[in-house]
Design goal:
2 helices; five-stranded antiparallel beta sheet; 177 residues; 45% strand; mainly beta; globular; six-stranded antiparallel beta sheet; 5% helix
Length: 177
């Protein structure tokens, strides 16, 4: 379905576990989902400015922008990134994202809200480092698994119909009030 409808670009049929540099954290199709990759664009949370984290008035100065093949997340902190893949969700599909076990077993939690019917864009990923040590995220490798659920009927009002504020997002997108 992903190939036929252009749901995922670029799309990787099958699971990729190695690159020219050696073993990597896998990405591509899985049994009932799709393992996405993280781009090399990161926003790492910093408390240098001692601002209050306010989802209605988010201060962009709370992040340091990093473009790298790895992201080091400080202890008990978080970073934002985006998928390499661009998604176009059909009207009858809902997508749930879960972190990959490789990262979860290291205390790194991936959080993404559901991709609603007719949402499209790069997925903004939130990585929480729950450990008291710095944690490493690898760009261009698998970081999370998307699970696709097909509804019994077409939804009445899609994300696109509602004019959702994150529709068509490109790059790492910060909170919008």
């Amino acid at each position: 379905m992903a190939e036929r409808h252009g749901m995922i670009e670029p799309f990787q049929a099958g699971q990729i576990r190695e690159s020219a540099q050696g073993r990597i954290i896998s990405y591509g199709t899985s049994s009932y989902g799709y393992d996405v990759r993280c781009s090399n664009e990161f926003k790492i949370f910093t408390n240098i400015n001692s601002t209050i984290v306010d989802p209605k008035d988010f201060d962009e100065a709370s992040f340091v922008d990093v473009k790298s093949d790895v992201c080091i997340i400080p202890p008990n902190s978080f970073a934002l990134a985006r998928t390499i893949e661009y998604f176009r969700i059909p009207r009858e599909v809902l997508v749930i994202c879960l972190g990959k076990s490789t990262y979860a077993r290291c205390g790194i939690i991936v959080n993404v809200t559901p991709l609603e019917p007719e949402w499209e864009g790069h997925v903004t990923l939130e990585f929480s480092n729950t450990t008291p040590l710095p944690a490493k995220i690898y760009a261009n490798e698998g970081v999370a698994q998307m699970l696709f659920f097909s509804g019994d009927e077409i939804c009445e009002t899609s994300y696109k119909d509602r004019g959702g504020k994150y529709q068509g997002q490109l790059g790492v997108t910060l909170p919008k009030a």
